[in-house]
Amino acid sequence: MAPDPSGIKEMIQSAWDESAERYDMQHAHGVQSEEEHTAWVNLFKQFTSDTPITVLDIGCGTGEMSLLLAEMGHSVHAIDLSENMLKRAEDKARKKGYSISFSIDDAESLSYDDESFDLVINRHLLWTLPDPEKALREWNRVLKPRGMIAVIDGLWFPESLSGKSRRFLSKLGILISERRNPFKSYYPDELIDNLPHPKGMEAFEAVKYVERAGFHNVTLHSLDEIMTIQRKYMPLSNRIGYQMPYYLVHGVK
After folding, report:
1. 241 near 169, Cβ under 8 Å?
2. Residue 70 covered by a domain
3. What is the pTM of this model?
4. Cβ pair 87, 17 in contact under 8 A
5. Which residues form the Methyltransferase type domain (predicted)?
């Protein structure tokens, strides 16, 4: 992993290490139903083939997307900054009998050689990065010619009045029903102040990042269908606040 004189990456690592224990229980992070599982598989079939390909899952967390892609027969390498996240991912892969390579690595400074993968994918990652442009250039570098990028992200904390109201009501419901404090920030203030997209990322911003990194045939895909499925299986307190732009950006090297 690249040196981190600012301490930003260390703070990111610490935050996700702390959240690893509950991560899969959070709706929209862990895949909570067979219906959602099927929807993700059908989505990935649009960007893969029946022939196995090499995939790099960047910021894999507890490995939900890695497991789906391995189930589809692909050769998956998965990285994350968080050791605790990776431990959970490795345990899940071992129980399912999937051979996935998990390792600690930096999304903005990958340890892989040029032109190593057919597909680079990440979910809920780009908005968390200090330097999204640098990251995407790295992802381009490790892709083979005609390799593909798939960025799954969203505008998680819309600043509209309706968005703020829904989040407040949702957190209040979680506080009452789950007896835990959801009002605590996911990141410390110092870290939030050093991120370009601390509220999440608009779809057009993600598209621009992908295009500036040298990808072509860039297309935007709404994930409203998957979000609708996710909301179906959420308790009301979660469902109230879970309504925002959710999308996939696809591009070709």
Report:
1. yes
2. yes
3. 0.91
4. no
5. 56-150
